[in-house]
Known about the structure:
Number of helices: 8
Oligomer: single chain
Strand content: 25-35%
Amino acid sequence: MIVNTETIDEFLARRSADVEDAVRTAAETEILPRFRHLAQHEVDQKTGPHDLVTDADRNAELYLTGVLGALLPGSIVVGEEAVHADPAVYAAIQGDAPVWIVDPVDGTRQFVHGDDGFCTLVALARHGELLASWTYAPARAQLATAVRGAGAFLNGERLHAGPPAAGRDLEVATSHPDFTTQEQKRALLGLRTDGVAPRPCGSAGLEYLAVARGLLDATVFSWEAAWDHAAGLLLVEEAGGAHLTLTGEPFRITGGNALPFTTARDEATARRIRGLLTTS
């Protein structure tokens, strides 16, 4: 394994640009050519009508799996479509090897409907710690990156989420009701109060990017799938934000979290939202 002779930090310093190239190439060769040009036979349902997969998802993930694994020998790729085919793949997130966590098209529903609100998400983690992330919205020409301890950037410009403006309602993107349990629905009712303006979320990756940019105050999500959260969590952290589960602990990509959880542009906002979720 490369990690025996080179640290992850050294790898990232040397090869981050190659990861970025891989993400861009996957989008340019497998995703964008199908954007607004999907044939009916290229779209399938997985668990239901709100859980779609396309040939763009499958082919982009296959491309990224090959390239990322070759860039970091000994690493493992955990992709959304691979886990759908074999749930046992997900266990690698808890193992010792470096793990690439991949969502080839986050916001597949938007992609299928011709909306530009979709992105490709890649994160690198080890022992449950997020080390680097890439969020690429190709139809919007936006690439956001983060490396632990080195900051978050959008198209090369550093991101600072900052606190919300005083006296303004907090805008919070929340899970779609179809993806929440009855208990989680009750928790989300806590957001329906003065000073908070909840709305349904779009692409999770792009909602995280909005938080990191200070354009959205918080998210509240009710599911744990690491490919939806890993890249965005690090992006928000490195922009100065925070995330908390119902028990007041940071969200763990290895699972076992008390849900729903919040990610916010600063710690004070995260604590406020978490308090609303636990007192509903």
